[in-house]
Amino acid sequence: MRGFIFGVIITLLVLFVGGYFYATTGHFDTRAVGNTPSTFERQTANKSLDEWVDEHAPKQANPFQPTMDNTMDGSMTYDKNCAGCHGSLKQPISPMRTKYYPPVPQLMSRTPDDPDGNLFYVIKYGVRYTAMPGWEGVLSDDDIWKTVIFIKNASQMKDNSQQRNPQNMDNSKSNSPPK
Ligand code: HEC
User: Residue 123: is its pLDDT beyond 90?
Assistant: First the structure.
């Protein structure tokens, strides 16, 4: 039994030290561009994010109604601070989408269905190990709630005369201005 426990400890030690040397001797590809998270990494990270946010996000309705004024306020905050990463109504797929690790969800082409409180929480506190910053102290809570209103309603504000499939993340189908 002692031999077995000793073996387990040695194995863990070898894995840990081996992993450390592998990573710190230039074998771990640290680029953001060209790397995509594996299915395992993505699922594990998304699950921990979902569980944490479900547990901690405010369980309240959005204090703002989706009126034209509130939506416009939200769209101004969004265009100034978020569109560069998340896409805008004019350019629903941002060129920065794949320039971060993990890649950035494009909110104008795929409306998140999470409760408003969850989106508020993610925007306010950001997401660790990703490019998503927390906006606490930069944007007021009111501005964050209104930005959520805009994100949730953006798909209805798109120009209906232009053909676009909201589920389509493909750049070629976006209505970016002609080059
Ligand atoms: C520098 C790039 C960057 C900027 C600027 C940025 N975000 Fe993000 N955002 C991200 C990334 C990357 C993620 C994905 C995080 C992950 O993988 O969990 C994300 C995730 C989100 C999500 C969760 C999406 C979902 O499907 O659940 C929301 C909502 C969001 N951002 C809103 C905003 C808002 C609002 C702003 C501006 C106030 C903003 N972001 C600014 C990079 C950015």
Answer: yes
